[in-house]
């Protein structure tokens, strides 16, 4: 899964067979998210076509429309009456880690509260792993995501927490995606517990310099309620340094209780503030006013796996906040890589319609990565398509837990 905005798949050039055009047809229902598409059903902003077809060429979408009007192509792929949606954009994940924290999950389900402390366990195991071990772990997780319909993934560092281990986490992540995020300010590592200021100086100094070549974004766990995470002032210092180094801004905020994360993200013009579980009225107003710039990325898998309350997505949408959905796939608070599971939670637990959840997981999360070449199926965009073994997108939350979604490969073949 690559997600370089401007280039198509690896070996495509005008002289290779990859440059041939493929008609993907047999699409019972195509969700495009394209609000300008002619002949589409624009209810709930999905830009839906029945009996549709898509032409894919050089990894890009060349044509979208009714199958009956499809142009001539070199190849043809018949999906046999399935639904096709824009590939899921998982805009928040922590895939670079080693170790096993299943016992912590079991303890939490038996009443132990989450406070961010277990991250140190993943840090220990990640530091001890070889590059090849880490690479194999990330590859397996990315493949697992793709098999469930995810075509773009953002990957954060944050389990290295030393100059060397953060840089190599990002170097490995960058082998799989262009959406890499430096999260040296995940928690204060054990060896710096009584030297917080020194750790922050390291993060914004030597560590940032070592990570910038492999990172597009910087993120910080702004959560004064956790002794392990960072205060508003500390988070501002980290984000300012990242911005100065040319990185885009993301924030983990308001996960464990009302706090300064959302306000800080809005103040600094961050592209995304993630979790947003506990919001005050002023947070919602701030996010609504900043909806062109700052997306609230909701991670209901984390609430599920920590038995926490869910964010009030209904209230956010009604207030005009831009929202996204992502997995937060990580070893501590949500070891699920499944966007369909996240959609089902968003519909069942957060009051979104199936259409709102699908938009949040595609065009919404693309916006949180400031990408307009993904999340919408329209000519010129990347051919990131997900096939459902079902006649309609409604089945995503209707058939919760059933593996009906998978990514279509860029040449239009299914299941390779
Ligand atoms: Zn996270």
Which key features would you list for this structure?
416 residues, alpha/beta, Urease, subunit C, domain 1, TIM Barrel, seven-stranded parallel beta sheet, 13 helices, 33% helix, globular, binds zinc ion
In short, what is this structure?
This protein is an alpha/beta fold and 416 residues long.
Structure description:
The protein has 416 residues and is α/β, with parallel strands linked by helices. The protein has 2 domains: 17-87 and 375-407, Urease, subunit C, domain 1 (Roll); 89-368, Alpha-Beta Barrel (TIM Barrel), CATH 3.20.20.140. The chain is built from 13 helices and 15 strands. A 7-stranded parallel sheet has the order 7-8-9-10-11-12-13. The protein has a 6-stranded mixed sheet with strand order 3-2-1-4-14-15, with no helix packed on it. Strands 5-6 form a two-stranded parallel ribbon. The two termini are 13 Å apart. The chain binds zinc ion. Residues 92, 94, 252, 328, 330 line the site of zinc ion. Zinc ion binds next to loops.
SSE arrangement:
Layout: E1 21-31, E2 48-57, E3 60-66, E4 75-86, E5 88-90, H1 102-109, H2 119-128, H3 131-146, E6 150-153, E7 155-156, H4 163-173, E8 180-185, H5 196-211, E9 217-222, H6 232-244, E10 248-253, H7 261-268, E11 272-275, H8 281-289, E12 295-298, H9 300-306, H10 313-319, E13 323-325, H11 339-350, H12 354-368, E14 385-388, H13 395-398, E15 405-407
Parallel strand pairs: 1-4, 5-6, 7-8, 8-9, 9-10, 10-11, 11-12, 12-13
Antiparallel strand pairs: 1-2, 2-3, 4-14, 14-15
Helix pairs in contact: 3-4, 4-5, 5-6, 11-12
The structure holds zinc ion.
Zinc ion is lined by residues 92, 94, 252, 328, 330.
């Amino acid at each position: 899964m690559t997600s370089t905005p401007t280039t198509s798949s690896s070996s495509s050039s005008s002289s290779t067979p990859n440059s041939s055009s493929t008609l993907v047809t047999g699409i019972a229902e195509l969700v495009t998210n394209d609000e300008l598409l002619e002949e589409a059903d624009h209810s709930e902003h999905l830009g839906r076509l029945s009996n549709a077809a898509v032409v894919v060429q050089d990894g890009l979408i060349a044509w979208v429309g009714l199958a009956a009007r499809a142009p001539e192509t070199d190849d043809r792929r018949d999906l046999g009456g399935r639904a096709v949606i824009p590939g899921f954009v998982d805009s928040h994940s922590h895939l670079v880690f080693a170790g096993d924290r299943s016992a912590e999950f079991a303890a939490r389900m038996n009443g132990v509260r989450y406070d961010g402390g277990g991250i140190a366990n993943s840090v220990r195991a990640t530091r001890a792993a070889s590059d090849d071990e880490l690479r194999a772990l990330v590859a397996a997780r990315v493949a697992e995501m793709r098999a469930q319909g995810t075509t773009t993934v953002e990957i954060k560092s944050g389990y290295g927490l030393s100059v060397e281990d953060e840089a190599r986490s990002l170097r490995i992540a960058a082998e799989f995606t262009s959406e890499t995020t430096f999260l040296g300010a995940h928690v204060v590592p054990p060896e710096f517990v009584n030297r917080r200021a020194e750790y922050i100086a390291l993060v914004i100094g030597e560590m940032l310099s070592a990570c910038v070549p492999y990172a597009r974004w910087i993120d910080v766990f702004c959560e004064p309620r956790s002794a392990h995470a960072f205060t508003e002032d500390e988070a501002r210092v980290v984000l300012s340094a990242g911005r100065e180094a040319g990185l885009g801004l993301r924030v983990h905020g308001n996960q464990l209780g009302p706090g300064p994360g959302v306000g800080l993200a809005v103040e600094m013009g961050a592209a995304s503030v993630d979790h947003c579980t506990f919001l005050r009225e002023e947070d919602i107003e701030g996010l609504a006013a900043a909806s062109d710039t700052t997306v609230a990325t909701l991670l209901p898998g984390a609430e599920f796996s920590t038995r926490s309350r869910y964010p009030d997505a209904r209230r956010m949408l009604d207030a005009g906040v831009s929202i996204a959905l992502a997995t937060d796939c990580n070893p501590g608070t949500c070891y699920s890589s499944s966007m369909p599971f996240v959609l089902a939670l968003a519909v069942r637990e957060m009051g979104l319609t199936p259409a709102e959840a699908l938009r949040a997981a595609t065009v919404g999360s693309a916006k949180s990565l400031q990408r307009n070449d993904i999340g919408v199926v329209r000519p010129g965009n990347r051919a990131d398509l997900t096939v459902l073994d079902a006649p309609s997108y409604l089945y995503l939350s209707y058939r919760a837990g059933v593996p009906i979604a998978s990514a279509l490969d860029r040449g239009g073949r299914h299941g390779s």
